Hints:
2 domains; alpha+beta
Amino acid sequence: MNEQEYYNTIIQPSTAEFKDRGSKFIGYAFPIETIEEFKKQLQILKKEHPKAVHHCFAYRLGTDGNVFRSSDDGEPSGTAAKPILGQIDSKEITNTLIVVVRYWGGTLLGAPGLINAYKTTASLALQVTPIVQKQIEIKYTIQFDYTQLNEIMQVLKQYNCTIIKQELQLFCSIKFGLPKNRLQEVLYKLNGIHNIELVKN
Length: 201
């Protein structure tokens, strides 16, 4: 079987709202790549909605989708986290966070009502943001002399590498993502350039 070369994710944040018997559910979907980003977004939403009774969430990270977490945040077990994560998984996406903020409306919704509300809110948030296919990239850092900049940039551009960070002094350092399906070609090209240091991150 061919190793996976692409993954699906969202590229922009989105918001959607759902109401049931007075309770208001606001769903937020975010593209994230690290657990730090998740923590930051959750903190921002808690500050934005201090009067909300619950901030339930689920996220899945990584191109193999092995890193995930979800929280009912005080709702009955299985009524919020599972339905939210279920929406991420039904779309087969990763590097995605969904937070659903709930304002209490005075009427108990019961487990089926809660499951439906969280599932619907997460689903609506994902419906309003485009899902894209991205190449799986392997991260490398290359260090070289400034005089070699053009030659190296040419290779990175030619193979659609993503530049993550660059420091261009007399000695340069570029951290970049290299498409998994072009790995051998790019490494062959770069290793053909003298006096460079290439390190896998």
